[in-house]
Write a structure and sequence with these properties.
Distance between the termini of chain A: 23 Å
Distance between the termini of chain B: 15 Å
Number of helices of chain A: 3
Order of helices and strands of chain B: EHEHEHEHEHHEEEHHEEHEEH
Largest sheet of chain B: 7 strands, antiparallel
Strand content of chain A: 35-45%
CATH topology of the largest domain in chain B: Chemotaxis protein chec
Number of strands of chain B: 12
Helix content of chain B: 40-55%
Strand content of chain B: 25-35%
Oligomer: heterodimer
Helix content of chain A: 10-25%
Structural class of chain B: alpha/beta
Number of helices of chain B: 10
Order of helices and strands of chain A: EEEEEHHEHEEEE
Number of domains of chain B: 2
């Protein structure tokens, strides 16, 4: 039986239970990052809202998963403590859309995307697949059993 | 093989970036060499053993175009692959360079992922992708003819102590070999399942692995060609035996070998492939 774990906004979850599926809903300008190491079958998902914790360090202390930098650091460390290796981790990302509902002119989606690119580059990791930009909300699923990642948008599902 | 790579760019930052991405790809690098312009690069090429040149075009003293001209007209350096990394966007110039024997071209700025893809295409041909396809073909063959499932690799799987190796060769648009290495016990299980036989002997076990390599090859070849008109010649599969763990160790130490877990048994596959057209040209 599959058991679902919901990753909320400004939240992250890790798992090495093969029956687990990590799910995040309604990604707009936010970005969800899936990390997965097939050897240890350990995976994690982060759903962050903003690119940089420097804008509000107090908030970052309280809610580190709100920001790309603080969130990724915790997620990567957590997975490594579970035996996963950075070199083996597959990185897949989705989100970063420009939503009509959000504040105009801030390009949050794009800045969120560039933030994760920078973090990956600094960590020496490649992004293996991405579904970013556009104007539609997305849902993202990470199957811990096999590492498969799927993205659902506009009622259509595609694997990343 | 480990690659000695020469990075030619007048910007030390660009040289650093290129080096970092190559390190991220886990490519087997012997030595990194660098040069600030074409003239310096030619000196390095004559002094050291270089397997790949990654070069900018616009540089002081001697630019990349002149460097490529000189490399291609010198016997010692003409067969060294060159990849251009530049902001140059004039298609006619790029086409000219490609015609002159430059392997590939990457436009600046590039993402690390684009660079990784380029490096894999240049250095491994289609091997990276074909490797996955060969294990995919093996998985399909095991499921269809032997009713066995491939599960994620884990520490509990049985690593064989005495092994059977089956090999099959193919030639045509591409040529190469597919080798499968498995434990004798696994091959007996294979014979039991494929031939619906009880207590198969060693010969039947070897035959079963040969048949598996044959079917894997048959499933693999259509995956690597674009047209069904591409016909391949396939050899009769061979097999040999080894009574200790040495063959397994040696085989799986090769980075082209891939180990899969077939219901708890470790099975290895190795694909050696090259483009026939390239080998004809002596590249």
């Amino acid at each position: 039986m599959e058991n679902k774990t919901i990753v909320h906004v400004s939240d992250a979850k890790v798992s090495n239970d093969p029956a687990n599926v990590l799910i995040t809903y309604s990604l707009g300008s936010c970005i969800a990052v899936c990390l997965y190491d097939s050897v240890t079958q350990a995976g994690g998902m982060l759903h962050y809202q903003l690119p940089d914790s420097k804008v509000d360090p107090d908030r970052a202390n309280e809610k580190p998963f709100m920001f790309a930098d603080t969130g990724m650091q915790i997620l990567v460390n957590k997975l490594m403590s579970m035996g996963a290796s950075k070199k083996r981790m597959h990185v897949k990302i989705a989100g970063g859309a420009e939503m009509d509902t959000g504040p105009k002119g801030f390009d949050i989606g794009k800045r969120n995307y560039l933030a994760i690119r920078k973090i990956m580059w600094k960590n020496g990791m490649f992004i293996d697949a991405e579904d970013v930009g556009g104007h539609t909300p997305r849902n993202m699923y990470l199957n811990i059993g096999n590492g498969n990642v799927t993205v659902r948008a506009n009622g259509l599902e595609r694997s990343l | 093989m480990s690659w000695n790579i020469l990075i030619v760019d007048d910007s030390s930052l660009t040289r650093k970036i290129v080096k970092r991405v190559i390190e991220m790809t886990e490519m087997d690098v012997g030595q990194f060499l660098d040069a600030e312009n074409g003239e310096e690069a030619l000196k390095v090429l004559h002094q050291s053993n270089v397997d790949l040149v990654l070069s900018d075009l616009n540089m002081p003293q001697m630019n990349g175009v002149e460097m490529v001209h000189q490399m291609k007209s010198t016997a010692d350096t003409k067969s060294i692959p060159v990849v251009i990394i530049s902001t140059e966007s004039k298609t006619s110039r790029i086409r000219e360079l490609l015609a002159e024997g430059v392997k590939d071209y990457l436009h600046k700025p590039f993402t690390p992922e684009e660079f990784k893809e380029l490096i894999q295409t240049v250095c491994c041909g289609t091997t990276q992708k074909a490797d996955n396809l060969s294990s995919e073909a093996l998985t399909k063959a095991l499921e269809t003819m032997a009713f066995l499932t491939v599960i994620p690799v884990d520490e509990d799987m049985v690593v064989p102590q005495n092994t059977v190796r089956a090999e099959i060769g193919f030639s045509g648009l591409k040529e190469g070999t597919i080798e499968i290495l498995a434990g004798l016990d696994f091959c007996k299980l294979l014979a039991e399942n494929i031939g619906a036989m009880d207590n198969p002997d060693e010969k039947a076990a070897c035959d079963a692995l040969k048949e598996l390599s044959n079917v894997t090859c048959g499933l693999f070849l259509p995956m690597v060609v674009t047209s069904t008109a591409d016909v391949f010649d396939v050899t009769v599969p061979n097999s040999d035996r080894c009574d200790d763990a040495s063959q397994w160790k040696e085989f799986t130490a090769d980075k082209n070998a891939c180990v899969i877990n077939v219901e708890g048994h470790a099975v290895a596959i190795r694909l050696t492939i090259k483009d026939a057209a390239l080998s004809d040209a002596g590249v």
